């Protein structure tokens, strides 16, 4: 068995005729056949041919295969974005008239997808506080067809009790789908813990360089075959070049996660020592690290506008997981459309800042934070 780090860098099954070191970009919408018998081979089971890029392309298949190998799942499908990967996964297990349970602190785009799109398509959406697993279990009824959650939530970085959620789902014979975007398979592999489907916004750590929008869904052969049909029918496929860029970024996942997570730990410790700062940083994700996101809440002694203004090279960017350290302001971006009672209940206040920690030296980041805190302190 090869190690995780080996699998991140190498591709066990990918070969190309010219033996080029990196996989070529198959920038083509279709593939050609030399005669009708040749065309017929495409339709044989186990064939390794391609026909039309919306149905499959070597680059998007490579991305899907790599992520499924890292997650320990037998199959995967890549798609145009994290949202389309979620869409394909949900549509492969849930039908109109059925219900889905989601956590109240789910990613904003996912919250809207369920509450706006799926409700319109007659899927009942049940929101529960997953921090209290008895509440989750009490909300299961006959119509529920899927339990959906995230391994680490945004922006306050609650670590889901993935194994307990799976246990509850098993008891009620329900499939579980997990968004593993924040944790990445470097820290957590929900499929190996028993989840049925795992999705990634590969826009984030899988790609890692803020230069693509991409998604991947992994699971067993049967579910992924169903999900892949949705990707094909709804045209949610990812382009060859974006697949290629994502695979290129993915090859450094291990070193990025190790370094960014170490930086994040140092920043969390520094911020914990500052007066009037409440730090949100996971402690239980994995024995060897807790990811590269750190959130903190500044109390009234700080002026938040001034804090952001003095972050110098640390830019406000409403995404995460790049190699550069960035910050976001959840109340006015990702969680802007949440009802006010829920913002309050979840603790997304005017003082909450979310930091995506990059690959700079930890001192660079800490010095800048220190200066911004000093400037923001009300006299
Ligand atoms: C960004 C994100 C998504 C959506 O992914 P896109 O690639 O933007 O479509 C879903 N879940 C989480 C946790 C995310 O951070």
TrEMBL record:
Write down the EC number. 4.4.1.13, 4.4.1.2
Among the GO biological process terms of this entry, one is: transsulfuration
GO terms, molecular function: cysteine-S-conjugate beta-lyase activity; homocysteine desulfhydrase activity; methionine gamma-lyase activity; pyridoxal phosphate binding; transferase activity
Q: Which reactions does this protein catalyse?
A: L-methionine + H2O = methanethiol + 2-oxobutanoate + NH4(+); L-homocysteine + H2O = 2-oxobutanoate + hydrogen sulfide + NH4(+) + H(+)
What does the UniProt keyword field contain? Answer: Amino-acid biosynthesis, Lyase, Methionine biosynthesis, Pyridoxal phosphate, Transferase
Name the SUPFAM superfamilies on file: PLP-dependent transferases
- Which residues does this entry mark as bearing N6-(pyridoxal phosphate)lysine? 204
List cofactor names only: pyridoxal 5'-phosphate
Pfam families (alphabetical): Cys_Met_Meta_PP
Which protein is depicted?
A: Homocysteine desulfhydrase
**Which organism is this entry from?**
Geomicrobium halophilum
A GO cellular component term found in this entry reads:
cytoplasm
């Amino acid at each position: 068995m090869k190690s995780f780090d080996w699998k991140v860098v190498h591709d066990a099954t990918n070969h190309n005729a010219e033996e080029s070191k990196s996989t070529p970009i198959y920038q083509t919408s279709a593939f050609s056949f030399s005669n009708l018998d040749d065309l017929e081979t495409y339709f044989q089971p186990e064939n390794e041919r391609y026909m039309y890029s919306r149905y499959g392309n070597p680059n998007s298949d490579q991305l899907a295969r790599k992520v499924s190998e890292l997650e320990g799942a037998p199959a995967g499908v890549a798609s145009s974005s994290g949202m389309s990967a979620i869409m394909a996964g949900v549509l492969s297990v849930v039908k109109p008239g059925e219900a889905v349970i989601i956590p109240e602190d789910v990613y904003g785009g996912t919250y809207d997808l369920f509450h706006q799109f799926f409700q319109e398509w007659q899927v009942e959406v049940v929101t529960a506080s997953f921090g209290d697993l008895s509440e989750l279990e009490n909300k299961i009824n006959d119509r529920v067809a899927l339990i959906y959650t995230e391994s680490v939530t945004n922006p306050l970085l609650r670590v889901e009790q993935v194994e307990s959620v799976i246990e509850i789902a098993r008891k009620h014979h329900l499939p579980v789908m997990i968004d593993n975007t924040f944790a990445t398979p470097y820290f957590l592999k929900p499929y190996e813990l028993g989840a049925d489907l795992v999705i990634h916004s590969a826009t984030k750590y899988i790609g890692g360089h803020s230069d693509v929008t991409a998604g991947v869904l992994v699971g067993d052969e049967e579910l992924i075959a169903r999900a892949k049909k949705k990707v094909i029918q709804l045209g949610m496929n990812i382009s060859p070049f974006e697949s290629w860029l994502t695979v290129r970024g993915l090859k450094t996942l291990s070193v990025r996660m190790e370094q960014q997570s170490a930086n994040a730990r140092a920043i969390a410790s520094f911020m914990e020592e500052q007066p009037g700062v409440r730090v949100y940083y996971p402690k239980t994700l994995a024995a060897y690290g807790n990811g590269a996101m750190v959130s903190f809440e500044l109390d009234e002694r700080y002026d938040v506008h001034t804090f952001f203004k003095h972050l110098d090279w640390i830019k406000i960017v409403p995404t995460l997981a790049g190699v550069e350290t960035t910050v976001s302001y959840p109340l006015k971006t990702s969680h802007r459309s949440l009802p006010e009672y829920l913002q309050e209940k979840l603790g997304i206040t005017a003082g909450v800042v979310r930091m995506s920690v990059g690959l700079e030296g930890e001192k660079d980041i800490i010095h800048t934070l220190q200066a911004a805190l000093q400037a923001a302190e009300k006299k």
